[in-house]
Design brief:
With 92 residues, this protein is mainly alpha-helical. The chain has one domain. Helices cover 80% and strands 0% of the residues. It is built from four helices and no strands. It is globular and about 40 Å long.
Amino acid sequence: MPEQADVRRQAHDSLAVAKMLDAQGYHGCAASRAYDTICYLTEAFLLGQGLAFSRHSAVHAAFGEHFVKTGVVPSEFHRYLIRGMEVRHAGD
C-alpha cells in the first residue's frame, strides 16, 4: 500500500537522523528521533489493517490489540514502543 511505503520512508529517514544526532552527542534528540522511527513502523503495521490514529496513545493501544494480543508479534515489541516513548520524554 502506498501509504505504508511513505511511512516506512519516514522511518528510514528518522533512523538516519537519530544515528547522526547520537554520533554528534545529541543523545536526547537522538532518542526522540529513534522513538519516531519505532512509531512510524508501528503506524505502517496499522495502515496495513486499514487503521490510522492521530494520538500516540491510540497507536500504542491499537498495536497491542491488533498485533500483540493476536500473537502476530511478540509482546516485547509493544514494550519497546512504550519504553521508547518514555525515553523520548526523558530526552526532551
